[in-house]
Amino acid sequence: MTVSTAVTGIGSLVTNDPSLMSADNPLGLVPDAAVVIEGDRVVWTGASSKAPTTDNRVDAGGRALLPGFVDSHAHLVFAGDRAAEFAARMSGRPYGAGGIRTTVAATRAASDDELAGNLARLLAEARRQGTTTVEVKSGYGLTVHDEARALRIAARQTPETTYLGAHVVAPEFADDPAGYVALVTGPMLDACAPHARWVDVFCERGAFDADQARAVLEAGVARGLTPRVHANQLGPGPGVQLAVELGAASADHCTHLTDADVDALAGGGTVATLLPGAEFSTRAVYPDARRLLDAGATVALSTDCNPGSSYTSSMAFCVAVAVRDMGMSPDEAVRAATLGGARALRRSDVGTVAPGARADLHLLDAPTHLHLAYRPGVPLTAAVWQAGERVRP
Ligand code: NIG
Ligand code: FE
Fold first, then answer.
1. In this structure, which residue's CA is closest to atom 1 in ligand 1?
2. Is 306 annotated as a binding residue?
3. Where does Fe(3+) bind (predicted)?
């Protein structure tokens, strides 16, 4: 028999339930609410006083509950860190994609167990902070063996795995970038596709140009992967237009956009995923979320967690920065960190607390979701359920 649990006495429930969302209530908020879960699913939401009888009951004590965060962009299969590089940047050294090669060397030298252990540690760290879905990219192996190994390890811990063999040109191919693209679109893809859901490319000066990026994404599509693109992070470029043209699920970073890029995102089915941790840690200008939202684009917020440009697993931190410095309201930022991430991963079962959704719940030590931005840096996560299982505390 499936056990049912009611979380009652929720002071403020963020549902993201389309049947409750409106211009006046963009998050489908329900005050004095309860949520009933059965097995791994939400089966009921509504007024706490009307909650049906269940096997178990948890009293939220008037605190806020929201969907688990959906972190749709992270690079978590790696070894080592680059704290010294961060410190040098904070005293003026610019960020460059070249630092990726430092992590590539450390990752290649690590054992499978070390990589799997580091990934598990980071996923647990994210979960402690309310994140219940995480996308994980390869991209620090850059050989057939090391990219396939990264994805095999990732696929054991998340279904959201992304083949990023085209992160930078591997050091062995420094003089032969075309040869590296042939590897990424040929034997490396063959080895990686069985373990990946998505294909990604770093389309940027110093990484891959538009033609190379198109070749990588089209080869991935031909093998059944869906594209997403690292686009327009360090400067203006063709990444966003390419992402929209190829029907990518998301264009990620979107820091340097032309009006035509914004229009393309607003008019297409590609989510604009903003990664403020990267601008924070590289001391760069934040992306303009307001411009994208006003144009009608769908916006997601994610951590970009990686040892080089953004070593944070905290979605709450991203929400706070997005509100403080990117023109988002607290409601918009919370929505982008939950429903937005779900859209970027083309998932309808996460990012909402509604009947039928996966029971991913995040209880805050706070009366409303506004406190996520209002109380930056404060660990507000009181409890987390992932697929119906209480994983925290
Ligand atoms: O998303 N932009 C490319 N890749 C990562 C950075 C990786 C690194 O510096 O190690 C990013 O920011
Ligand atoms: Fe990234």
1. 304
2. yes
3. 73, 75, 230, 304
